[in-house]
Every structure is written in structure tokens, then in C-alpha cells.
Amino acid sequence: MEVINTIGRRKSAVARVYLSEGKGKITVNDRELDDYFKTDQLIYVVKQALNEVNVAENYDIKVNLYGGGYAGQAEALRLAIARALIKIDAEHRTPLKVKGFLTRDSRVVERKKPGRPKARKRFQFSKR
């Protein structure tokens, strides 16, 4: 099997995934998964797509992550892994689609407007 290459995005985070057959080792920016993502919740999010189709121990994954914070990076990585699993086997599409792992979450931070303290917040109004 050749290496499968996919991309996933969330907020301003971008994850490029290289998936190949192996023993389930996940390397993020040349570091172990547990070393890169500190919390169990983020590790769970990353492995959700693999666990949904029961192939967590079948593939080695090498990841290049940049941009955003840890939560956005974890969800971008989940999307990229789900897309890679579909390239390998099209039958994985249905269970991943049902769980929502193939949907690109397009919500991003709204820009700050001029003359305001934040994107939508206004300064306090004073009648007198």
C-alpha cells in the first residue's frame, strides 16, 4: 500500500496527514501523539475516526500541524484522518458521515470592526 495524503482544516489550523500501513503509531510534528496533545480529551478527538471504523491499530500516521490552537488542531486532524480512511476504503464513508467526521466546520473567528472594542461589542452608551 502506498502512502495516502489528505488535508484537514478547522478554524485557522491545518493538518496534513500521511497514512500508511503499520502498527497504529501516530506522530505529530515529529513528536508522539501523547507528547503533543497533553489532555486525554484531545487525544480522544484525534482517534475518534479510527475507533469508529475499528482500524486504530492498522495504520501509522505522520502529521504536519500548524496554525490555530490545540483544540482546532485536534479537530483538523480528525477530519484529515477521516478523509484518508475513505480513500483507503469507500465503505468507511457511511459510519464516518453519520458521526459528522467528514464535515468541515467552517466557523472561524469574526474580525474586529473599527471603532469597537471587539467584533460585536460596543462601548458603553452614556445618555448624559
What would you note in describing this structure?
The protein contains four helices and five strands, in the order ββββααβαα. Strand 3 and strand 4 (31-32) form a beta hairpin. By secondary structure, the protein is an alpha+beta fold. The protein starts with a strand and ends in a 29-residue tail after the last helix. Helix 2 runs parallel beside helix 3. The mean pLDDT is 94. The protein has a single domain (4-99), classed as Ribosomal Protein S5, domain 2, CATH 3.30.230.10.
Q: What structural category do the secondary elements indicate? A: alpha+beta
Order of helices and strands: EEEEHHEHH
Helix content, binned percent = 25-40%
**Which CATH-level-2 architecture?**
2-Layer Sandwich
Largest sheet: 5 strands, mixed
Please give the domain count: 1
The stretches of 5 or more residues where confidence is low (pLDDT under 50) are none
Q: Globular, elongated, flat, extended or rod-shaped: what is the shape? A: elongated
**Overall radius of gyration:** 18 Å
Indicate the CATH class: Alpha Beta
- Oligomeric description of these chains: single chain
End-to-end CA span: 74 Å
Strand content: 15-25%
What do the pLDDT scores average to? Answer: 94
Counting DSSP E segments of at least 2 residues, the number of strands comes to 5
**Strand numbers in spatial order across the main sheet:** 1-2-5-3-4
List strands and helices in order, with pairings.
Elements: E1 4-10, E2 13-21, E3 26-28, E4 31-32, H1 33-36, H2 40-52, E5 59-66, H3 70-88, H4 93-99
Parallel strand pairs: 3-5
Antiparallel strand pairs: 1-2, 2-5, 3-4
Helix pairs in contact: 2-3
